[in-house]
Design a protein that fits this description.
InterPro entries: Bac_transglu_N, Papain-like_cys_pep_sf, Transglutaminase-like. With about 325 residues, the protein is an alpha+beta fold. Helices cover about 25% and strands about 35% of the residues. It is built from 7 helices and 15 strands.
C-alpha cells in the first residue's frame, strides 16, 4: 500500500504580455477502491477560480481563465495518493467464451468508443504482425500481454523523437517514440482483434527502480477483459500497470486525457515547460526545480522532430527507395 507524493509543474513563458488565458486541466487523480487521494493542492498564477466537472469518460476536469496581463503562467499540482494492488485476472473462462463475449460488446456503449480505430495507413503492415503474435487458443488476457511485449521489444524508447502532434504513422515509420506513442500502437493492436482498449494518462512511481517514463507524465493502455474488467498494461516497461502507476484520466487517446490545454490573447510565441517529481512515503514534495522544455510555439512545429534518429531513419528510407 505505497503512498506517493507527486508534484507536477506546467509553466508557460510568453514572448510578451498576454491576457485571458483560458485553460482546461485534467490533473485530478482518479479516486476508486485502488487509488485513494489523501490531499491535492493546486496552485495557479493569479489564483483564478477553478470550476470542475466530470466529463463523458468519468474524468474530473478543471477549467479557469486568468484575465490579467502576464508573461508567464505556472500550474503547480501537488498530490498525495495511496495506491492498492489490483488482483490479476484468474483467466479461468474458456477462451472461446471470452472472445464471444467481446464480440457481443462491439455495439455496446461505452465499448464502441474503445473499439473504433483511428486512421492509420500502416495498419496493412501491422495486420500480419498482429495475426502472428496472436496464438490460436490464447485468451484475451494473454493476447494483451503478447502485444505489450511486442511493442516493448520492437519500438525504441527515445525522448524527443516525436511530439504530441505526431501521428500513428510517424511512430510506425520511426519504430520509436515515448510512452504515449507506445500506448497508441498497443491500442491499435488490441482493437484490431476486438479487445476494447483505452488510453490512460498518469504517473509512474517505481520507487526509484529506473523504469521508463519517470520525470514526466506517463501513459499506458487498459484492455477490457470479460469477467474481469479493465486491465492496465504498460508497453513502455512491458509490465502490468498496478500499484506503481497513478491514474489521472482515461479516454480514447491522448487528446481526451491531455493534462493541460489552453488558449490566450496576445503574442503567438511561447514556451511550454513541464516537470514531474515523485516523493515516497513521508518524504517532502520537492521545490520547483528541474523544469525542462517540452516545446516552443515560437518555432515552427513538425509532426516528427528533426533529431538525429529521425534523420537516420529518413536517410535509410531514401536509400531503400533508390535501390528499388
Amino acid at each position: 500500500m505505497p503512498e506517493f507524493k507527486i508534484q507536477h509543474i506546467t509553466k508557460y513563458s510568453y514572448d510578451g504580455f498576454v491576457r485571458d488565458s483560458a485553460n482546461k486541466i485534467i490533473l485530478y487523480p482518479i479516486t476508486d477502491v485502488y487509488q485513494e487521494v489523501l490531499k491535492h493542492d493546486l496552485i495557479i498564477t493569479g489564483h483564478p477560480q477553478v470550476d470542475t466537472y466530470i466529463d463523458y469518460y468519468g474524468n474530473q476536469v478543471g477549467s479557469f481563465t486568468y484575465t490579467e496581463r502576464h508573461n508567464s503562467l505556472i500550474i503547480n499540482s501537488q498530490v498525495s495518493v495511496i495506491t492498492h494492488p489490483k488482483p490479476l485476472p484468474l483467466d479461468n473462462i474458456f477462451s472461446y467464451d471470452q472472445w464471444t463475449d467481446l464480440f457481443n460488446l462491439r455495439h455496446t456503449v461505452p465499448y464502441i468508443d474503445f473499439l473504433k480505430q483511428e486512421y492509420f495507413e500502416g495498419l496493412s503492415e501491422l495486420r500480419p504482425i498482429v495475426e502472428q503474435e496472436r496464438k490460436t487458443d490464447d485468451t484475451p488476457y494473454h493476447v494483451a500481454l503478447h502485444f505489450t511485449k511486442y511493442v516493448y521489444r520492437n519500438f525504441e524508447y527515445i525522448k524527443g523523437v516525436t511530439t504530441v502532434e505526431s501521428t500513428l504513422d510517424d511512430v510506425w515509420k520511426l519504430r520509436a517514440g515515448v510512452c504515449q506513442d507506445f500506448a497508441h500502437v498497443l491500442m491499435v493492436m488490441l482493437r484490431y482483434v476486438g479487445i476494447p482498449a483505452r488510453y490512460v494518462s498518469g504517473y509512474i512511481c517505481p520507487n526509484k527502480n529506473g523504469m521508463r517514463g519517470e520525470g514526466a507524465t506517463h501513459a499506458w493502455a487498459e484492455a477490457y477483459l470479460p469477467g474481469y474488467g479493465w486491465l492496465g498494461i504498460d508497453p513502455t516497461n512491458n509490465c502490468i500497470a498496478n500499484e506503481n502507476h497513478v491514474r489521472l484520466a482515461v479516454g480514447r487517446n491522448f487528446s481526451d486525457c491531455s493534462p493541460v490545454k489552453g488558449v490566450y490573447k496576445g503574442t503567438a510565441g511561447h514556451t511550454l515547460e513541464v516537470s514531474v517529481s515523485v516523493g515516497y512515503d513521508d518524504s517532502p514534495i520537492q521545490e520547483e526545480k528541474d523544469i525542462f522544455t517540452i516545446s516552443s510555439a515560437s518555432k515552427p512545429a513538425t509532426s516528427v522532430p528533426r533529431n538525429s534518429y529521425a534523420r537516420y531513419v529518413e536517410m535509410m528510407q531514401q536509400q531503400q527507395q533508390q535501390q528499388q
